[in-house]
Amino acid sequence: MLTNNTIYRVLPTQIIQFWDAIKFACKQADEVDKADMPDYFSEMLQALLSDKAQCFIVLDDKKILHSIAVTRIILNKVNFSKELHIQCLYSMTMMYNASLLRYFAFIADFAKKSDCVAVTYNSRNPRIWDIAKTVGCTERYRSFAFKLGGK
What we know:
The chain has 151 residues and is of the alpha+beta class. It has a single domain (6-135), classed as Gcn5-related N-acetyltransferase (GNAT) (Aminopeptidase, 3-Layer(aba) Sandwich), CATH 3.40.630.30. Helices cover 36% and strands 26% of the residues. It is built from four helices and five strands; from the N terminus they run βααβββαβα. The protein has a five-stranded mixed sheet with strand order 1-2-3-4-5. Helix 1 (15-29) crosses helix 2.
């Protein structure tokens, strides 16, 4: 990914234009069971259209889409501060460190303007762990699940 690409926040009124790309990115990046996808995407679309979730994209000078991030401002239940949680982060092309740092800085700037005290995200993807280290994140905790069967 070249560093002269432009980062945009997609406004709620523009979400429908990018909806297929957002769904593709989230299917690739998020670990959602196929059976849960209709509910997952219905909730996400409602959140994006009502500005309860945000979408950021990277376009090149030919308006070709290179990357998508979906975020949500959440309340930390321990100290009641606001945090910007990256729900989905997906790149259609290789992002080099300079581009990653610029993209993350753009999202972090949005978080600061939204009175958030941190940017957070969870992932099982080792590439996302590498990105976290590159942009200066620290590990908070690890999350585990034991499936009990059923759904």
